[in-house]
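Entry 14. Ran structure prediction on the chain below.
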Amino acid sequence: MVVGEELIPVPRSLAERRACARKRLESGFQMWLATGSDGRGAHLIPVAYVWDGSVLYTATFAGSRTVANIKAHPRGRVALGDTTDVVMIDAGASPIDVPDINVEIAERYAEVSTDPRNHPEGRFVYLRLQPRRIQVWNGFHEFVGRTVMRDGRWLESSVD
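Output, structure tokens:
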């Protein structure tokens, strides 16, 4: 579409954006994870992840600010991609002790990052991130219709 002299890209459909989110989740392994706490503000870390088709898993130091934030406020915000093409995920978050993680998840995680199972018990924890809302956009022209998941369910029609 052309407005004045400016070429404005046509926004992708909801189905295309859902497919983009799924593809990025399935093919990627790096993300930004933001958590928050009372009085200390936001905390952002880069971490590896694995996706099992419905849940993201990552791991970090058991004594980290990220884990403390999640214990106090069991949620996180994940960003995949870059500022010009992003998948933004609001998720419920919970820690999982290393001995309690599903073996398949642990094996897959070890392929993309440090294996927490090779460190002294209690040094690391896995984090389970259950998506509640997912948004996808690749520019201002896609702000409308960017929500592809709401309340943990993939959408069939636009809500924004």
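The first strand starts at residue 2 and ends at 3. Will compare against last week's run tomorrow.
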